[in-house]
Amino acid sequence: AIMADNTRVSDAEITRREQYIRAGLREREVLDPFTWSYPFKGAAVMAGVGLVAMYVTNRWNKKPYYFALFPRLAALSAVVGIGYALGTLREHHYKTRDAVIEHYINLHPEDFDHFKDRNGRSFSQIILPWYPRRTQYTKHE
Fold it and tell me: Which of 58-73 are b and which e, b meaning 16 or more Cβ less than 10 Å from the residue's Cβ?
């Protein structure tokens, strides 16, 4: 089945959507963590988890919030550094994965010809046939 012309999206709109979704291409904003790079996301998450852990530990032990503050801040900075390192590792992993995929696509372009149609395939071409196999229809002998 051929898609109707009014359901087709222009190439400029598809490019805009892809640029908006792809990581690292949106302009960075301090108040929007979805625009942060992976190292900063990792550091922020670890800082949040560390601060909550410090607060809960002090509440559990019935200590004031400033109890053992400097050793805990040193431990928190180490934890934030670990989060930053894990974010860097994740970023490196995704960049390597994308480079490997792009290289494979460049070596075997004939395997990816069906992606050249920007409007995609119809839904009937995507799904596999489904044959119901229900227990109430099976024969037991």
Answer: beeeeeeeeeeeeebe
Closest Cα to residue 84, out of 46, 54, 52?
46
Query: What's the pLDDT at 1?
Result: 46
In the chain, what is the straight-line distance between the N-terminal and C-terminal CA atoms, in Å?
44
Read off the amino acid at residue 93.
H
Instruction: Read off the pLDDT band of 103 (50, 70, 90).
Output: very high
Has this prediction a pTM greater than 0.85?
no
Q: How far is CA 13 from CA 9, 107, 120, in A?
A: 6, 29, 14
Instruction: Give yes or no for a contact between 47 and 77, defined as CB atoms under 8 angstroms apart.
Output: no
